[in-house]
Amino acid sequence: MSHIDSREAILDQSPLATVTVAWPLLPYRLPPPRFRNTSISPLSGWAGAAKRGFDIAFAILVLILHIPLLFAAAIAIKLDSPGPVLFRQRRIGLHGKSFELLKFRTMQHRPSAQGPLCQTCPRDPRVTQIGALLRRTSFDELPQLWNVLRGDMSLVGPRPHAPGTCAGSTPFEHVSKRYSFRHRVRPGMTGLAQVRGWRGQTDTRDKLLRRLDCDLEYIATWSLGADFLILLRTIAALWRNAY
Predict the structure, then answer these.
(1) 189 — phi, psi (to 5°)?
(2) What are the residue boundaries of the structural domains of the chain, listed by start?
(3) pLDDT > 90? residue 141
(4) Which bin fits 40, alpha (ψ -120 to 50), beta or left (φ > 0)?
(5) Given Cys at both, which of 88, 99, 132, 199 links 241, Cβ 3.0 to 4.6 Å?
(6) pTM as predicted
(7) Can you give the pLDDT at residue 24?
(8) Distance (Å, whole) CA 193 – CA 215
(9) Neighbours of 200 (CB within 10 A)
């Protein structure tokens, strides 16, 4: 059994509320037992209402302040390459339900292909000139504020994955039994994993597990203050690991 498999076996079976596992620079705190009920979100009641209210207020404010830039980006995308302004893709959200995620299109428009999802990679030839700029600044993510207002997403939370995405040749949901735990809260535009530098391609089990550790730590230790700090740290992380 590999080191990763041994570690996952410990985390999957431990009945303790908090477990620290040796992983360089990233200790992991296992979520309390109450998160093990897949039908209950840990952010319910007043916590859920407070987080939702913060999401709506912040999303409206950012959209209003960026209206001119949003229109400028839309025009630039249309002039740069043929195809729609927005990229739409099914993603997995709260309680495992799918939703349509919106982003500014940053790649050449091609019909959806069948088979395993092909993740974007560094220096991907499919990325357009305008798309490269939008990705580098993460401005392509701003249309997701509409997903936030619709209730599909939150400002902060685990990043939503597309169905069928694989780490190497293994579907994400088969890498760890803990993977479904991340679907107990709304997915976020940014998250703890992103501000810790885990952005970009998730092409190995190790990368996925490190992100999963961050996602579950965020759920277990959530607070409005933590959301605010993650949003602030996101600004500093925008240029790191983006392509």
Answers:
(1) -70, -30
(2) 45-79+87-109+116-237
(3) yes
(4) beta
(5) 199
(6) 0.80
(7) 39
(8) 6
(9) 16
What distance in Å separates the CA atoms of residue 182 and residue 185, rounded to the nearest whole number? 7
Residue 223 C-alpha from the chain's centroid: 18
Q: Structure tokens of 22?
A: 């040796």
pLDDT > 80? residue 28:
no
pLDDT value at 6 more than 80: no
Tally of CB atoms within 10 A around 170 = 12
SS3 category, 157 = coil
Burial 31-60 (b: 16+ CB within 10 A, else e): beeebeeeeebbbeeeeeeebeebbeebbe
Residue 186 to residues 14, 124, 154, 176, 205, Cα–Cα distance (Å): 26, 29, 6, 20, 23
Give which of 155, 147, 160 is closest to 211, Cα–Cα: 160
d(C-alpha 186, C-alpha 117), whole Å: 22
Q: Please report the pLDDT score of residue 124 as a whole number.
A: 75
The C-alpha angle with vertex 124 and arms to 119 and 127, in degrees rounded to 5, equals 100
What pLDDT digit, counting tens, does each position of 217-226 carry?
999 889 999 9
Structure tokens at 74: 């839309």
